Amino acid sequence: MPVESRLPIFNPHESNQNLTFRLFPSLPKELRLLIWTHALHRQRIINVHLSDPWLENPSTFRDRLSTLLSHRQTTGSSPGGWSARAGHYLITVYNSIPIFSKFLRVCQESRKAAFSTLIFAIENEIGVDTFTTPGTFYFNPEWDFLRITGWEQINVHLHIPCFLHDLKVRYDPRGIGLLNLLISDEDDDDITSSLQDSDMPSDIRNSVASTLRQLHEVFFRSKLTKRRMGFTIADGHLDAKPFFNRSLPLHTNISIFDRFATDPRGPTITDLSKQYMGESKTTPYHRFVRLLTEFGISSSTDTATQFQFMITFSARFRGDNRGADGGVYNREDAQKWLRRDYEQNWVRRSWWPKGVDTEVSMGPDYVMDVLPAFGFWLFPLDAMMDTERKPVERLFDMSQHRPALGLSVM
């Protein structure tokens, strides 16, 4: 079966929307600024990694790391503790494309609107995979979600609380800091494991507690690597008909996303009735609630934080020389990944078990019955709590829930 050169994607094509509005310059300035500001109000997910500054010096890295690990192994703590390390960290923004708003480069008026919307700036390293350059990223607490990680062996228990403190008292002129947080099941050393230091100075601890109490939203992300398609087993025998979750959104490294209260594609009942929810499911949520308790915060009475569970499938290129991540960074990557996926699963079918009905799902009409979306689903808290009632299950019937859709802007 021939593979279409361009398989359809649900995400709108941004470049097709660069239409000319010649009367725009003649509009009143106040109206133009309103239009600029409206266009800037798009949410982002920004990956922030914290580490020690000396990691950037290859001539000292090995000796310093060896000393640090040896000290931690013998004493169980970092050299110098809080007094030596607090506030001294390197910020790297990685795999979050784009970092800069295009409105910073259009004209003086759009740049002014962008700076009024992006509340504050942070000096940092900006990179994709292992390649970084010095830069600045601009941040709006009301719109942006931060995923904050570190390396456990290198003072992450010092860096993350200090970073949260600095967001509030050093970087943000309004003293607000972090409002929206993403916690991923990929991260061993995230915010929930790094804020449990009993020696944390009182000013930093109070600042962290204030941040946790004020959070608007927390996304708990499961990046799925399996069960997008497969074969069911009934009565100990392989079912001849495969299942394929056409509706499951595909992950990208694009930071900007549009958000829909419900998935406008109308995911099929069949897809949601056999939905894999990841291995961890509600574990990250319970860890976060325990963290709140340690700071004297009740998740039900002391905060109005909205908890949502993000489900997305890991769309990665394997075997390519594309860096450590191998993910989707633009529309061209998305098209390429879909073609490869279609060739592997629906053309060659080399991995399909014997006895499977090969007449089922033969053409693109079946595969594209629901257009593939690059982004993620958001399920409410009560939907995920339903999965706890069947702890040994792997596939869940989520058809009674209508997930929200986050759609990568590409």
UniProtKB/TrEMBL annotation:
InterPro entries, A to Z: 2EXR
Pfam families attached to this UniProt entry: 2EXR
Residues annotated as domain 2EXR: 21-146
Protein name: 2EXR domain-containing protein
